[in-house]
Amino acid sequence: MDIIRDTAGQTRPIIFAMAFNIGATNAERIEAFALYQRAFHAKKISEAIPPEGGDLHIVMEVAGLRILLAPGGKVEKTTENAMCCELTYDCESELRSSYRILAEQALRCSLEGPYPWATLLGLVVDKFGVCWALYFNA
Questions:
Q1: pLDDT band at 77, cuts 50/70/90?
Q2: What 8-state DSSP symbol labels residue 82?
Q3: Which residues, in sequence order, are CB contacts of 120 under 8 Å at separation 6+?
Q4: Distance between CA 44 and CA 61 in Å, rounded?
Q5: In angstroms, how far is CA 34 from the centroid of its own chain?
Q6: Is the Cα dihedral 134, 113, 93, 91 positive or negative?
Q7: Dihedral (CA of 133, 125, 15, 31) sign
């Protein structure tokens, strides 16, 4: 495990997490979490509105990675976004299930392969503009 030394000289683990800027409304972030829960069995870690009020923030866990669903975001219609989330499956039916759920109202989606690096590849830009690459190798 990587560690970092804080300003007080104490060491603590480095934790990698991500944030997705999802929509302008709280309802969109609730809907996004429901989609990822169905597609990836995401677990809700927390849900809160800042003390001054306003926008809902949801922290979820997908495959051991914490992801913040935060307000805002520009929806792109391409898989050429600066970032694409990749998940590798050891079961083709699980990949197909996640792909089917994400593809509902997706901005763009395709099933491709075989490739040398993946027997089956599902590429999806979901309705919130998040790019997903789902890999399966037989």
A1: low
A2: S
A3: 92, 95, 111, 112, 113, 114, 135, 136
A4: 6
A5: 12
A6: negative
A7: negative
pLDDT category, 74, cuts 50, 70, 90?
Answer: low
Tell me what pLDDT residue 72 has: 79
Instruction: Using a cut of 0.90, tell me whether the model's pTM lies above it.
Output: no
Q: Are 30 and 22 in contact (CB under 8 A)?
A: no
The secondary structure of residue 36, as a DSSP letter, is: H
Return d(Cα 34, Cα 42) in angstroms, integer. Answer: 8
Q: Give residue for tokens 């104490």.
A: 10
Say yes or no to pLDDT of 6 above 70: no
**What pLDDT band is residue 80 in, cutting at 50, 70 and 90?**
low
Amino acid in position 135: Y
Mark residue 29 as left, alpha or beta (left: phi above 0; alpha: psi -120 to 50; beta: remaining): alpha
